[in-house]
Amino acid sequence: MSPNTRARCCRQGRKRDKEGQSSRIGICMGESRSGAVALVVLALLIVGFLGTAPAAEASHWCNPLTATFGPTTGAAGSVVSISITLTNGIADSLDVRAILVEFSWESSTWDWGSMNLPAYGSDTNTFTKTLTSTPGDYAVQITVRGQAVGDLFTQDCGPMTVTLRVLADSDADGVPNADDNCPSVANADQRDTDGDGQGDSCDQSSAGPAGDLLLPVILILVIVIVVAVAAVAVSGRSRARGPPPGPPPYQWSPPPPQPPTQPPGGTP
Ligand SMILES: [Ca+2]
Ligand SMILES: [Ca+2]
Fold first, then answer.
1. How far is the CA of 203 from the centre of ligand 2 (A)?
2. Ligand 1 centroid to residue 68 C-alpha, Å
3. Is the backbone peptide bond immediately before 64 cis, with ω within 30 degrees of 0?
4. Nearest ligand to the C-alpha of residue 202?
5. Omega before residue 247 within 30° of 0, cis
6. pLDDT in tens, 129-167
7. What are the residues whose beta carbons fall under 8 Å from the beta carbon of 265, sequence distance 6 or more?
8. What's the pLDDT tens digit per position in 34-90?
9. How many C-beta neighbours within 10 Å does residue 164 have?
10. Which chain residues have CB less than 5 Å from ligand 2, an ion?
11. List of residues 6+ apart from 68 with CB closer than 8 A
12. How much distance in Å is there from the Cα of 191 to the middle of ligand 1?
């Protein structure tokens, strides 16, 4: 553009501004360049703003997304293993950048990892968590931060809310009172040797390993007693009948007479 043309263009623009028109139609080339740069910068700012702004709650991958949380019950104060399974409900893969979890009995927000979900695929992340020591129903809020293939921005889905029931555990052995076979004695193994519903730790009839030998010992004692009673009974009957008859009394009798003997040498 020649200097004359540029000057004419600028004059036209200033003239139209004076005439009250809303936009500068006749923008000269120098102003056009700076305006284009300004527009690019503005666009970049908008993109940057959208990229860091709080993501919208709803996304095209959000509504088909399903989250499974479990278990939903646990003993107060115990350490439980909690799993969250996400299932992608769209035909595009979903890059889950974070799984943000918040338990209502505390203010912390936990990031339970990332995962890459193929189309309609699922994955599970598992973490351990110490439950509150106060029984009750508590809300757990789960927010999934992700980006589907083809999307420009990462967005948040949620929060989804589930209820976690914390149950009383008087002996703090990790087994809730309602399921504990010794509710007031810590017995995490819940061992019940004789199967009567009472754990060995609080069952007087089967106190641990000693209880395992109790029945055989009782049987042996019963057998010994029966044998002893039978022996006593036999002995009593024998004494009642008296001693067996002895041999007849001894009587002396003279020996029978002997015939006279003949002297040697013949008759006299
Ligand atoms: Ca117990
Ligand atoms: Ca028992």
1. 5
2. 30
3. no
4. 2
5. no
6. 999 999 999 999 999 999 999 999 999 999 999 999 999
7. none
8. 666 666 556 555 544 444 444 444 589 999 999 999 999 999 999 999 999 999 999
9. 23
10. 192, 194, 196, 198, 203
11. 83, 84, 85, 87
12. 10
